[in-house]
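Appendix B, example 12.
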Amino acid sequence: MEKRAILLATGNPGKVKEFKDLLSDMPFHIYCLKDLDENFQVIEDGMTFSENAVKKAVQAAKQFQMLSVADDSGLEVDALGGEPGVYSARYAGPEADDEANNDKLLANLAGVPDAQRTARFRCSIAVADPQGNVQTADGVCEGRIGYERRGQNGFGYDPLFYVPEFDQTFAELCLDIKNTISHRARAFQQAKEILRKWI
C-alpha cells in the first residue's frame, strides 16, 4: 500500500515519540511540526480538551494541506476540583516547565491523604483533512498522584502519576506498557480506526 503523508501537529518531542510508536504499523510518512514549521502556533482557548484538539488539527491540516492529527490532554485531580485540566501544560504559569508544574501540583496536594489523591489523565485526539472534515477520539487512564517524583521516562506529570495496577508511575513504566494503558494510547486506538477509514 502506498504511504500517505500525515502530520502530527505538535512540537512536544515526548508526544511525537509516542505518536510515532503508536502509528508504526500504519502506512504513513510521518511528519511533525519541527519538520515543517516550528513557529506554527494555535491559541488553545477551548474549554475542553476536544475543542483544543480540533482547533489544532483543523488549522494544521489547512495550513499544510495534509492529513493532520492533534491531541490535547491533561491531568484532572479530584481533590483539586479537576485541576489542572485544560491548563495542565501551563499550570504554574504561561512559561512554566514540567518541573514547575509538578512542584505546584505537589504543593497544592500537601496534606491530602492517599485515598483522596485520585486523578486521571484524559486525552482527546482530532483527525482533520485539508477540506475541514474532522473526527475525534477520547481516552482516559485512572490513577493517583504520588508524594514525590519517581522514574525517568515520559514527560509532564508522568513522574507523579501512580498506576496502582502496576505499582509504578507513568515515568517508571516501560514504553510498551504505557502505550497500551495510557490515555493517549486508548484515544489513539480509536483514532487509528478513523484513519483506517480515511486511507
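The chain has a mean pLDDT of 92. Helices lie at 13-22, 33-36, 49-64, 98-108, 175-181, 183-198.
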